[in-house]
Structure formats: structure tokens, C-alpha cells
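F.,

This is the one I mentioned.
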């Protein structure tokens, strides 16, 4: 039975906000603030996702994950793995290395943490890096030469990144490095079971194949003056690195068997250090201290150590431990101390877990007081005191607890409390704080042709140094072209490019490509699209999280060793995802700030105003369009957009 009286006139239902005949607003400026009206219709706003905003090298993470998951299609004839790798390496030329050792701040920032767990970005990067090496992918060589020469001082991550970006721009690049091989701390700091040397060599060689020249075992400031380099080259990038360790600032630290972490790791990576003694104490709390502790656990000790075989001789000199080859290794007791509580240490959580599993004792809340020495001057232990440490107002505050002192016995003490830059021969560059002063383009103050990056600016992550190198390369390129160095964008990341994608697909808007936003009908524009990636990071509050079901993360296989298994085990611990796992993990990405073609807006639009763009004209980011003659500004499309790509803007 109908609930409407028969006498009632039939009237079609409508969800429009205007009365019949009143649907066209002639002067919307005068009515725009009416509380009971809406003149807002869908606009398509590309924003930076927090993963990219948290990535120090500025990778287009969302972009390559969308390629891996199959949303963005590669050009005809190109495997998706190669297309994703090429997108990734626009920012970072060392993905296989970084996929292993980067602590992945991108994952901490991932909006997926609001659903269940972050996307395994690092593991997908690792997979793509391995694919590129296995398939011998190469970077395309520059199509032109600028005729300009650039010197890159330092062959670590900052220098390699700068050299890579500069070579792609057509400049002739020469890398100078005081070591025998390139890689910086990736080779001489991080142990090989974390960065396999075959992987590091492959990714460095790919950069050199762009035409980058090298001068190894050549130290600027000693073998060649900086003035000579400035005369011979049009611009200089200073990626000096911080490879001088800091000794413990306590009495007795001059003991011969009290060494720095950088000296320890270099001796190990050079192949000189073969054993460490029965009791090793590492002072630190960061990833470097974990590297020292895990290396010490693997090297162990040997009985019947003669004076010439003591570990400090291999660390501070150039004497190899040949005796270790014929002696039975035994485990070492390794203790790592930190002024911070264990859960507040700077080291990556999974590295801490590895160390604990391998039998390394990690003790937080301990401050070194004094190195205990015997009559011969060698360290026999480290006096420590319980403490409470915190950072307040940007400064470290340590409060020692009186009466809590104890001695930790040691045959070798390693200081991993920080690193410094060796300015020998380059003293004029030292700003008095152990670094070089530069602006946001990393141009050295008062030296227009000098640019800088990496630990000499601010000791941080390897991927931070890669980002510095890329930004400095942009500045050098503009300097060489005689262009002013513009202010860097607020959010300095590599972003997905709508116009490039349209050109790649063969879609032409018109001969006029600007403006690219602000209309729903002009063929010279992309329908109401605005790229705000340079200034806006999209938070999870703007996403429709209800769209995403709980999905477990696909984890890499990580080999965890016991204390006994770790001894003399230098095999790699982190294994890459399989292809199917990489795809499945990429599908967990929520594509924050960019359409991933879920169809929600089309399905839920009550006016059928939102529609799919015809296949011949569609591409990533241009999957749907809006007919503003039908749109009533109900906001439903925005509410159900999982990625926050749809925002409500002005429209007619």
C-alpha cells in the first residue's frame, strides 16, 4: 500500500540543493557564504604523502609503489620492475644498499600505521634494487654535454649522489677520494654482512658508467690544494664526510686498546682486524655502536695472544691478524652501554633485537667515567655510573646517580659516541663547529662555486647525505647556467608528474599547456587539478581509512643468529622479498594524496556527476572527471575518497 495519498500530485524526487529553475547561480560571489548553500565541487589535489615527506633523499615512494602494484602502467615494452626502479632512482641511485641499511624514517611516517602497520617501503626498495642488479639495468647516458667540469670531493653517499645527478645533467664530473675505493662509510664503516660488497660495487659502477671519472688515493688539502681544484673546475662539491671518530671524553681514554668506532670498522672492512679480545665494551647507542658490537661478536677472540697480535695494533696500524687464520676462534663477551635507556637509544629497533639475539649485552642508563688501566697503560676496564639522560631544549642533560659506579672489565674499549670531519689542509672551511656553513641550496657561504653535503653539513643518515647531494647538484646546475639559485620548496621531494605522464601516454591537451588547473572544460588544462606536493603533506585525518581492511605486512626473511651461530658468520642477514610478496606489499600502500582508481567517487555520486575519463584520455591521476552541470556540491565523493585526492573547491 502506498503511503502517499492518491490525490497528491506526482513529483519526481530530487537531491539538488536548488529549486527548479534556480539551478544556475548568476552571481555566486554574493551567495558563496550562504550557510544553506554549497558552491563547492570536486577538485583533484595532489599532495605529498608523509612517507615521501619523511624520506631524507626525497624518493617518489608513492609513485614507485603504485607502479609495483599495477596502478600506474609502464611504457610499452618496459617491465614494471624497471619502470619502478627508474622512478625510484631519480632520487636515490643506491636502492639496493639503502633498501638494506636505511632505518626507513618513511615507514615511521606512513599513514598506514593508523590502520595496522606501516607499508614495508624499505623491502620493496630492496627488491627493486636487486632486480636491477640481476638484470644489469643501466642509467641512460646524458644526451648533451654542458662543457662544464665539476669536482666532487669525497666518494661517499653524498658525493656519489651529487656525481650521479650532475652527470645526468650533462656535466663532466670527477670524484676525488682519499681511499682506495669509493663508497665512504658504506664501505669503510658498515660491515659487509649488512652491505654486501658485490651489491655496493654494482651500484657504484652504474654511476661511473655515466662517464664519471675518479682520482683515488688523492686527498684534497694534502695531495692537491683546494685552490688548485677551484682553478681546474667550474664548480666543486664538498662531500668530505665525518670519518674521524671521537674518543671517550674521560680520563684514561688515551690507552692503546681504547679506540674509536670508525677506526675499528675501517680495520675490519680493510681485512686487517681478525679478532678483538675476550671482553669488548662498546660505548654508544646508535647504529654504529651496534655495527661494532655485532662485528666484535663475529670476530671473537683467540687464546695465546702475543703482544704483536693485540687488536689495537691492527686497528691503529696496518698489521694484519694473520695468526687468527690458524688459531681457533672463541666467542667474545660484548657489552654495549648507552647513556639512554635501551628503548630510547637511537639505534634501529630491529638492529637492537639482532644484537640481543646474538648474545650482546646492551645496558642503558650508564655513563662512562674513567678508563681503568694497568701498570703498562693498557685498559682493563671501564668505570661507569648509572645516569638519567634526556634532551631538553635541544641540549643533552645527564644526571649521574651517586654511589652507583661499577667497573665493566674489558680487553678492548670502542668509543662510538660520534664522528668528526678531518679539516687538515682545509681549515679555512671549518665554521668553528666542526662543519661547513651553507644555505638551503647547500652553497657555501661566501664561495659561489663551492657546494657541500653529507655529514660535513650535519651528521645523519646515509640517505640524508644522498638527499644533500641531489639538492646541491640542482644548485650547481643553476650556478653553471648563470641562473639565480631560487628558494627551495617547503617540501623538497621528487614528485609524480602529471604532465610527464600525459606526454608519455601520448595524450595532448593542446598546444598551450598552461594553466594546468582551474577549469572543467578548457582543453588546455587538466580538469581542476592542482599539484601541492611542494607545500603540503597530507595527514591521515584527510583519508577515508574505513576503505582499507586489516592486512598483515609481508616481511622480508631476516636471519637471526644465536651467540654461537654469530661467531665467524659473515653471511648476509636480510633477504629480499619474492616478486609476489613485493607486489602484495605495495598493494598495502594507501596512495595518500593521489588517486589509485578505486571507483568510490563514481559509485557513490548521487548525481552521476563524477565519471570515468575515457581510456584514450585517462592516465594515473586523471582517472575520473566531474560534470559540473550535474554536481550539487554534496561532498560525498570527498567523504568516500580513500586517498584524500578529492577536495572540495569552488565551482559552477
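My design for it:
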Amino acid at each position: 500500500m502506498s503511503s502517499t495519498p492518491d490525490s497528491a500530485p506526482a513529483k519526481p524526487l530530487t537531491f539538488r540543493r536548488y529549486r527548479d529553475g534556480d539551478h544556475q547561480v548568476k552571481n555566486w560571489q554574493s551567495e558563496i557564504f550562504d550557510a544553506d548553500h554549497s558552491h563547492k565541487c570536486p577538485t583533484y589535489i595532489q599532495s605529498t604523502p608523509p612517507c615521501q615527506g619523511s624520506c631524507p633523499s626525497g624518493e617518489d615512494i608513492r609513485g614507485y609503489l603504485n607502479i609495483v602494484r599495477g596502478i600506474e602502467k609502464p611504457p610499452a615494452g618496459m617491465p614494471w620492475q624497471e619502470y619502478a626502479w627508474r622512478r625510484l632512482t631519480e632520487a636515490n641511485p643506491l636502492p639496493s644498499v639503502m633498501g638494506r641499511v636505511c632505518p626507513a624514517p618513511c615507514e615511521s611516517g606512513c599513514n598506514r600505521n593508523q590502520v595496522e602497520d606501516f607499508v614495508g617501503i624499505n623491502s620493496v626498495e630492496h627488491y627493486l634494487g636487486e632486480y636491477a642488479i640481476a638484470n644489469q639495468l643501466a642509467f641512460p647516458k646524458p644526451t648533451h654535454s654542458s662543457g662544464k667540469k665539476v669536482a666532487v670531493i669525497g666518494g661517499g653517499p653524498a658525493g656519489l649522489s651529487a656525481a650521479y645527478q650532475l652527470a645526468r645533467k650533462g656535466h663532466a664530473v670527477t670524484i676525488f677520494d682519499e681511499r682506495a675505493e669509493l663508497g665512504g662509510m658504506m664501505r669503510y664503516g658498515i660491515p659487509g654482512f649488512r652491505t654486501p660488497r658485490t651489491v655496493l660495487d654494482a651500484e657504484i659502477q652504474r654511476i661511473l658508467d655515466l662517464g664519471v671519472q675518479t682520482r683515488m688515493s688523492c686527498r684534497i688539502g694534502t695531495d692537491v690544494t683546494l685552490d688548485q681544484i677551484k682553478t681546474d673546475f667550474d664548480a666543486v662539491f664538498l662531500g668530505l664526510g665525518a670519518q674521524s671518530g671521537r674518543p671517550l671524553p674521560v680520563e684514561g681514554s688515551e690507552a692503546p686498546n681504547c679506540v674509536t668506532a670508525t677506526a675499528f670498522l675501517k680495520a675490519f672492512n680493510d681485512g686487517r682486524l681478525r679478532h678483538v679480545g675476550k671482553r669488548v665494551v662498546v660505548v654508544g647507542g646508535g647504529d654504529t655502536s651496534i655495527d661494532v658490537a655485532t662485528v666484535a661478536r663475529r670476530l671473537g677472540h683467540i687464546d695465546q695472544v702475543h703482544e704483536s697480535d693485540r687488536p689495537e695494533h691492527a686497528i691503529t696500524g696496518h698489521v694484519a691478524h694473520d695468526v687468527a687464520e690458524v688459531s681457533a676462534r672463541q666467542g667474545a663477551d660484548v657489552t654495549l652501554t648507552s647513556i639512554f635507556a635501551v628503548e630510547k637509544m637511537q639505534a634501529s629497533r630491529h638492529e637492537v633485537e639482532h644484537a640481543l639475539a646474538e648474545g650482546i649485552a646492551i645496558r642503558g642508563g650508564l655513563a662512562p667515567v674513567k678508563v681503568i688501566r694497568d701498570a703498562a697503560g693498557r685498559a682493563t676496564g671501564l668505570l661507569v655510573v648509572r645516569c638519567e639522560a634526556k634532551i631538553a631544549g635541544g641540549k643533552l642533560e645527564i644526571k649521574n646517580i651517586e654511589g652507583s659506579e661499577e667497573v665493566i672489565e674489558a680487553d678492548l674499549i670502542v668509543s662510538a659516541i660520534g664522528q668528526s670531519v678531518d679539516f687538515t689542509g682545509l681549515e679555512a672551511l671549518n665554521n668553528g663547529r666542526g662543519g661547513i656553513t651553507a644555505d638551503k641550496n647547500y652553497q657555501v657561504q661566501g664561495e659561489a662555486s663551492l657546494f657541500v653535503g653529507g655529514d660535513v653539513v650535519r651528521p645523519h643518515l646515509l640517505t640524508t647525505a644522498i638527499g644533500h647531494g641531489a639538492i646541491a647538484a640542482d644548485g650547481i646546475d643553476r650556478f653553471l647556467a648563470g641562473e639565480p639559485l631560487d628558494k627551495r620548496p617547503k617540501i623538497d621531494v621528487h614528485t609524480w608528474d602529471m604532465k610527464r605522464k600525459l606526454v608519455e601516454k601520448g595524450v595532448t591537451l593542446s598546444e598551450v599547456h598552461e594553466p594546468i588547473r582551474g577549469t572543467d572544460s578548457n582543453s588546455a588544462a587538466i580538469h581542476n587539478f592542482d599539484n601541492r606536493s611542494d607545500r603540503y603533506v597530507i595527514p591521515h585525518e584527510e583519508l577515508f581509512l574505513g576503505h582499507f581492511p586489516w592486512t598483515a605486512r609481508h616481511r622480508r626473511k631476516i636471519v637471526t643468529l644465536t651467540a654461537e651461530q654469530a661467531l665467524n658468520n659473515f653471511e648476509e642477514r636480510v633477504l629480499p622479498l619474492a616478486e609476489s610478496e613485493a607486489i602484495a606489499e605495495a598493494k598495502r600502500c594507501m596512495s595518500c594524496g593521489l588517486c589509485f582508481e578505486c571507483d568510490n567517487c563514481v559509485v557513490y555520486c548521487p548525481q552521476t556527476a563524477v565519471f570515468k575519463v575515457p581510456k584514450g584520455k585517462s592516465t594515473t591521476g586523471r582517472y575520473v572527471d566531474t560534470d559540473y552541470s550535474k554536481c550539487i556540491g554534496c561532498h560525498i565523493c570527498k567523504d568516500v575518497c580513500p586517498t584524500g585526492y578529492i577536495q572540495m573547491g569552488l565551482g559552477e
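The chain has three domains: 16-47+497-532+594-652, 149-244+421-480, 245-418.

Talk soon.
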